[in-house]
Amino acid sequence: MRFTRISVDPLQMGGVPCIRHLRIPVATVVTMVSEGMSTREILDAYPDLQPDDIREALQFAAEAVKERELPLVDKPGAMATTYVAMESLGCELHSGTNGKEPEA
Description:
Elements: E1 6-7, E2 18-19, H1 26-34, H2 39-45, H3 51-66, H4 78-88
Helix pairs in contact: 1-3
């Protein structure tokens, strides 16, 4: 997918993905949506934004998460550490191992 409303410029905001070079990070918009703000509330907070900016920010975030590579677990205790980290972020854990190391 091509993102026409997302800019990444190493000389602006340290290369953080922003909306149309406006110095409004994609993460800021996604956070506002995740906190339950309506499109109207977001547009009121950032008058330079347009409704399509919000939609594309969400699409960009979804694509970024989808493309992430996760490391393989190859060390004893690594899975338990991963599960503790996920739980601390409030993630629900769904796996056949119930958060336990597989038996060797």
